[in-house]
Every structure is written in structure tokens, then in C-alpha cells.
Write a structure and sequence with these properties.
Layout: H1 3-20, E1 26-31, H2 36-51, E2 55-60, E3 87-88, E4 91-92, H3 98-101, H4 106-120, H5 126-135, E5 139-143, H6 144-149, E6 162-164, H7 166-175, E7 178-181
Parallel strand pairs: 1-2, 1-7, 2-5, 5-6
Antiparallel strand pairs: 3-4
Helix pairs in contact: 2-5
């Protein structure tokens, strides 16, 4: 084996050892949904993992880009949401047929109920959770293809984002200890 081959082999072994013996665990999340109720899981999990010492990346794609908008206007729809009949603020919506839940104004009503309930229980807002993630150095990547597809401008989205494609997620996800699709 030549000296060049040996040096290359040593470099590859050291790189593999670095991956195997690293101290920091890694979490990769794909956020695909942009409703109020679906914005909470990726941000809560990311901020919690970061607080526990994980290196965290969230890849926002398709409707998940809504979570990154500077001016958030996220809502929760009671229509065709099979989990919606849950108890919110002491009110059980299980009795309410889908037809009633689809009436004009019900989305605003459900959104108001959820925001009120989270505030009442001391749950951080989406903006606060997003800020926690930024402060904790969570890597946030906006899917460039989706940004282009839906006509977003970088000025529509919060500062400090990375813009990359699906290949970047595979790079990150391939190195992660945990991968979540939300």
C-alpha cells in the first residue's frame, strides 16, 4: 500500500470514528404542515431536544413553510379534522357534525379557542417557540424548491434561514440519530 493510499485510509477511518464516537446526538425533523395545531410539534420537539444538548435541524417543506413566515396567520381548521372533536377549554366538540364545523367563522372560532387554551395553560406561542429554536441554534432550512414553487420571497420569511433542497435533508438525516416526519 502506498503512502498516499495509507493516508487516505487513515483519513477515512478518522472520519468514521468522528461519526461513531461523537458526543452530541442529532435530531432531524421534516415539517410539512402549516396549520396552528401542526406548527407546535416540530418546534416543541426541536427546542426541547436543543435544550437537552442535541444538534437539531428542521427542514421546512410545502405547507410547513407557513411556520417560517414573518407575519404568521396560522389557523386550525375544525373541518375534516378527525382529531378536532377533542375537549378544548372544557367544551366537548364531539357532538358537532362536520357540516356545522364547516360553517363560515368556525375556523376563526377554533383558532381562537386553541390560542386561548394554550395561553391559559402557559404554552408558548408559535412565535415564542420559533424564537427559542433560533436562540438554541436550531438549524432551520427552507426547502428551496417549495419556496420557488409557491412563490415565496425571502423577505416573506424570517431571517437566518438556510435555503436548500431535498439532498441536504438526506445529508442531515443520514447523520441523525433520530428522524421525524411531521
Amino acid at each position: 500500500m502506498s503512502e498516499v493510499d495509507l493516508q487516505g485510509l487513515i483519513a477515512r477511518v478518522e472520519a468514521l470514528e468522528g461519526r461513531v464516537f461523537r458526543d452530541e446526538k442529532r435530531l432531524a425533523i421534516i415539517a410539512t404542515k402549516g396549520t396552528l395545531d401542526m406548527a407546535y410539534p416540530p418546534l416543541i420537539l426541536a427546542s426541547t431536544a436543543a435544550a437537552l444538548g442535541y444538534e437539531v435541524t428542521i427542514f421546512f417543506t410545502f405547507y410547513g413553510l407557513q411556520i417560517l413566515k414573518k407575519n404568521l396567520n396560522l389557523e386550525v381548521s375544525p373541518t375534516a379534522n378527525p382529531a378536532m372533536p377533542m375537549n378544548m377549554g372544557g367544551m366537548d366538540f364531539g357532538w358537532m357534525p362536520d357540516m356545522v364545523r364547516s360553517l363560515p367563522g368556525m375556523t376563526k372560532f377554533a383558532t381562537g379557542m386553541m390560542k386561548g387554551l394554550t395561553k391559559q395553560h402557559g404554552v408558548a406561542s408559535i412565535e415564542e417557540l420559533r424564537d427559542l429554536c433560533i436562540e438554541a441554534d436550531v438549524r432551520m432550512i427552507a426547502c428551496q424548491m417549495t419556496v420557488d414553487l409557491f412563490g415565496f420571497k425571502t423577505s416573506d420569511l424570517i431571517d437566518g434561514l438556510e435555503y436548500a433542497g431535498a439532498a441536504t435533508y438526506f445529508e442531515v438525516g443520514g447523520e441523525a440519530d433520530i428522524n421525524l416526519f411531521i
